[in-house]
Amino acid sequence: MSVETGDTVIEARDLKTHFKGHTGLISALLGGESETVHALDGVDLHIAKKEIVGIVGESGCGKSTLGMTLVRMHEPTSGNILFNGQDITHLSGGKLKSYRGAAQIIFQDPYSSLNPRLTVDQIIREPLDIHRIGTSAEKTERVAEVLSRVRMPPETYLHRYPSDLSGGQRQRVAIARALVLRPKLIVADEPVSMLDVSIQAGVLELLNVLSKELDLAVLYISHDIATVGYICDRVAVMYLGRVVEEGGSDDVMHTPLHPYTERLMAAVPSVDTSVPRQRVELQGEVPSPTDIPAGCRFAGRCPLAAELCHAVEPELYEPLPNHRVRCHLYLPADNDIPADLARPEFPENR
Ligand SMILES: Nc1ncnc2c1ncn2[C@@H]1O[C@H](COP(=O)(O)OP(=O)(O)OP(=O)(O)O)[C@@H](O)[C@H]1O
Ligand code: SF4
Ligand SMILES: [Mg+2]
């Protein structure tokens, strides 16, 4: 999908969210020095209206931190967030409350995210009460409208409780609740990972249709790369708090450029990479986000790592149109990196 600049809903610029914390209970009890967790460590990303951008990467790479920072549930440490061109990085008070209405998040667990003592009507109406929107009649109309949008006839579901609903129906109610304030950005953090596989596609298809019908920008976070390919226009691959590859979802999934992405995709049987190459395995552990290595963050696990990789962190290069990668294999010819550092080279079988 081509995106006009004026269509951009949300934009992150060199966004960082660091947490202060102890690495363990014993360190905390002994009053040891707290460490800095570089959970989100310099991310640039934009999402346009009607666009779904997928975020993938191993556990702990900062996907949820990115989502929660964009909706301002976490305070960014530095960088900027622009919403419809306005800088909202440091909003507070009433303006922050109003932004939170426009930027909603849906979590993975539809069992714990809905209050079991409230009816579907009360659950969806609650945000309107909190934000003091509409008369009683207008609220009733809006609740019915969003229930219809998530394909749940209001007359059947308004007075039911979460315990009367299936997992898929609960997640639809969670989506309706997120929609009732008429947001422009939805962060969906693993929204189907706790649902039965047979109903996942229906919920994803709904998110896809809603993004187009309601001009929504959607950030879709998932471990499941196959579902990302199913609904996303673009995909960003994260590693240790940074985006290491970003592009159209077909390009990233079928022609991955970064050695890390290549290994992530090779682990997914349903992803058939179109470039013939040996299937490669992802080995080793992700380094700790409290101790970020110098140079390329993936160097400790990358079989192609060379001297340059350990010394200088790559920028996001754009070797193909609209397909960016943070890897020195794609270092442009006109670079100003010292020539005496050995460069990585493509393997012969590639
Ligand atoms: N509130 C917090 N305080 C301290 N550290 C945190 C906090 N939230 C997240 N982290 C740490 O930040 C890093 C990134 O966490 P995050 O939850 O964003 O990862 P993720 O990619 O969503 O992982 P998963 O796939 O398991 O959901 C992890 O090391 C995590 O332990
Ligand atoms: S920069 Fe070097 S270490 Fe990092 S992914 Fe590319 S080849 Fe591997
Ligand atoms: Mg997460």
Q: What does the model show?
A:
With 350 residues, the protein is of the alpha/beta class. It has one domain (11-25, 35-283): Rossmann fold (3-Layer(aba) Sandwich). The chain has 12 helices and 12 strands. The protein has helices spanning 25-29, 63-70, 93-102, 120-130, 136-149, 154-157, 167-179, 197-213, 225-231, 249-254, 259-266, 307-311, and strands at 8-21, 35-48, 52-56, 78-83, 86-87, 103-106, 185-189, 217-221, 234-239, 242-248, 317-320, 323-325. The strands form 2 sheets. An 8-stranded mixed β-sheet has the order 6-7-8-3-9-10-12-11, with helices on both faces. The protein has a 4-stranded antiparallel β-sheet with strand order 2-1-4-5. Strand 11 and strand 12 (323-325) form a beta hairpin. Helix 4 packs across helix 5 (136-149). The longest helix is centred in the middle third of the chain and has 17 residues, at 197-213. It is globular, with a radius of gyration of 22 Å. The two termini are 29 Å apart. 40% of the residues are buried. The model has no long low-confidence stretch (mean pLDDT 92). Residues 258-259, 296, 298-299, 302, 304-305, 309, 314, 327-329, 344 line the site of iron/sulfur cluster. Adenosine-5'-triphosphate is lined by residues 19, 21, 37, 39, 57, 59-65, 223, 289.
